[in-house]
Specification:
The chain is α+β, with helices and mostly antiparallel strands. It is 47% helix and 18% strand.
């Protein structure tokens, strides 16, 4: 299960438990609650698919494909996310 958290400056992040049972954040910055909840929903689907060993739903796959250019920046690389390797999720979720 993923949850949305907001700090005192209005920055949002999605918190979820990875396959290693560690609680991990995805920092979204300043965005609407509606967007953050949408991201949390996709993260839940990715984690469920990874646990079951299945592919994520089509809507989540399309969302990840649209997200790929964003993740090519230095911030994603600094967090150990490689967008070319499974769009980064295998390095971060597990």
């Amino acid at each position: 299960m993923a949850s949305v958290s907001t700090d005192s400056k209005g920055f949002r992040r999605v918190l979820f438990k990875g396959l290693d049972r560690k609680r991990r954040p995805i920092h979204l910055g300043q965005c609407s609650m509606k967007y953050a909840v949408g991201v949390a929903g996709h993260v839940e689907e990715i984690v469920k698919a990874a646990i079951r060993g299945q592919a994520e739903p089509d809507a989540t796959s399309e969302w990840l494909a649209d997200l790929s250019p964003i993740m090519e920046g230095s911030q994603a690389r600094g967090r150990g996310v490689d967008p070319s390797a499974g769009r980064g999720r295998s390095n971060y979720i597990g």
